[in-house]
Amino acid sequence: MSHTVFDFDAIIDRSGTGSEKWDRYEGKDIIPLWVADMDFRSPPAIVEALRQRINHGVFGYTHPTPGVTEAVLEHLERDFNWRISPEWLVWLPGLVCGLNVLTRSVGGPGDEVLTFTPIYPPFLSAPLLAQRGTVKVPLRREEGRWLLDPEALERAITPRAKLLLLCNPHNPVGRAWSRDELRQLAEIAERHDLIIGSDDIHAGLILDQKLRHIPMATLSPETAGRTITLLAPSKTYNIPGLGCSYAVISDPGLRRSFTAAAGRIVPHVNLLGFTAAEAAYRQGEGWRQALLAYLRGNRDLVEDAIRSIPGLTATPVEATYLAWIDTRAAGIADPAGFFEDAGVGLSNGAEFDGAGFVRLNFGCRRSLLAEALRRMTAAVNNPARSF
Q1: Is 3.40.640.10 the CATH number for 48-283?
Q2: Neighbours of 329 (CB within 10 A)
Q3: On the chain, which terminus has fewer CB atoms closer than 10 Å, C or N?
Q4: Is the peptide bond before 64 cis (omega within 30 degrees of 0)?
């Protein structure tokens, strides 16, 4: 597998495929770098596994096979040194669905959910949909780096606080939280008896080669007992449309609460999702390593370009394929609208509780990314632009 060459520079036309990412700007000269899916073909091993499953021709109700369960267990131990039991797994048709189930499974209406902002928007909406209060704890930016703020977290905790939602690696700021940072959170959660919900969907996308992903639940058995971890192969292997995710919950009581909250409302994972997940974890590693190398090149291109644009700054992306760009010093009133007018579709930071920021998805072919960055540079540098 290591000798296979994967072509991440290939031009793949996604029009006419129902692509959420590309159809937003259908018929317009706007490069879509917003929603977090990549433009690359999924690993050949996944495509082949799906082809074989489809050739069988029968698509009945399907439960997870022993093969997909074993593949997940082997992946967690191989990549994160995390040994889990099969019964800890709860399968889900999507990670956002998992966030909503998680929020409903802890505490009751009127209780509070803490989370660090800026954050992936469903972290902000899930508590409200579950009649919980959302308590935002801002991340700190110090010397060009985003940091957790344990003191601010402590101040935000009230007797109604029951759940701490964590994004690790963090979307949108691209941090892979360190063991020390996670330990501080675990200690606070233990002291205040908080359950921790950790979204680790970008765990396979650590770009900084000095770092490793550390799941919160691996810190200690005590921390594991109060942690619900959400995972999926969807971001890493570019299969979000196949809807296969899972929760890892070691505590039987927490697991019962979680499955009760899911009830009969949450649908089963579709059979092609299981097929793709097993192939990803068993045969996708060569592709993943090639992807990481390509994404590092794209990240460097983005960071160099942003450094050269007056009034824009971005912190180093340790993980994910998302850059979080601060436009406030450029004096742009509506940055997402401004760059859309310039022909680049970015995510609006306000939706992440980060007004004045935009999120750029660099999971695309490099020539397209270079053109998007050229357009952004020209737009900001245009002496005729109005404020």
Answers
A1: yes
A2: 11
A3: C
A4: no
